Amino acid sequence: MLKIKNLLSYLNRERKKNFSTGQVSRKKFNDLSQKYNILVDAIASTEKKFEKKALLTTAIPVTENFDGQELCLFISHSVTPYIKPHVAHHVQALIKSGIHVILILNTDQPKFECQLDDWTHALAGLFIRENIGFDFGAWSHIYSIIYKDSDPSHLYLINDSMIGPLSESMFKGMLEKIRNSSVDMLGLTANHEPIFHLQSFFLIFSNKILHDQRFQSFFKSLWQLPTKDMVIDFYETRTTQLIQRLGYSTQALYTTGNTFTEKSDAVIHNLDALFALNFPYIKTSMANKPVGKKILDKYLPQINHIG
Question: How confident is the model at residue 244 (pLDDT cuts 50, 70, 90)?
Fold first, then answer.
């Protein structure tokens, strides 16, 4: 009897794969309805809600133009303005490697001051920003301020959702891949759900893209979207496609060979394969899971596990 039940279950799974019912779950329907209602409310409003400018305080002013240099806009979120230990570790590694870093602290308390450590004098800039628009909203906001006076060779967009680098040699190998590449837009990993896109925790744009007026017009005027899901739907999963339509090349530096499978987020579902390629990060959401704790204890015991 058990074998028959297993067989029927298998046949049912195969049927679902090959014959879509055209139905969606109640949760998915409710999520889509919520997004639609948010869009309607914003578009049919005189307030231009998505174009709101976040409150912004300059803790360390930007005084350089970064001509011919590598520039990173690093976004981190905290309830109060605070540089998390794993962010400090990551930013210092970037600076040590010759990348200029502007740190953006998206915070729920933008009027609070941030306590600065000795190393922060090496930052190219530090902004305390009202927490709206998530990472893309913050990147767009700061880029719109600095782009006229900056001509970097590459623009790095990084957020605090990853912990690392796990080792100096892994990090050096990654930077060599980036600096030796002629591709216009790079990401560390890619995802094919729902469409092919480079994952936005670490992106690199070439100088060619930065000089494209179409890209500038797009990137410096992104909406301050109110939910993380909307940011993912509108910007993370679509920016790669936009860059390709503009005629530029895109590439993921670390590919595990299973990116077309159902679970294609390799930083969660195929971490062992990534580490075999000397991938230098672990996702913060994995930090308190057994596999994450094991990795952090081995490589970064000084970094507190993150909840």
Answer: very high
* Helix and strand element counts for the chain (H, E): 12, 12
Question: Is 90 exceeded by the pLDDT of residue 18?
Answer: no
Residue 255 CB-density burial (10 A; 0-12 exposed, 13-18 middle, 19+ buried): middle
d(CA 268, CA 296): 15
What's the pLDDT at 2?
45
Give which of 266, 129, 130 is closest to 198, Cα–Cα.
Answer: 266
- Give the pLDDT of residue 9: 64
Letter string b/e over residues 44-69, b meaning 16 or more CB atoms within 10 A of that residue's CB: eeeeebbeeebeebebbebeeebeeb
**Adjacent-strand bridge partners of 54:** none
Q: How far apart are CA 147 and CA 66, in angstroms?
A: 10
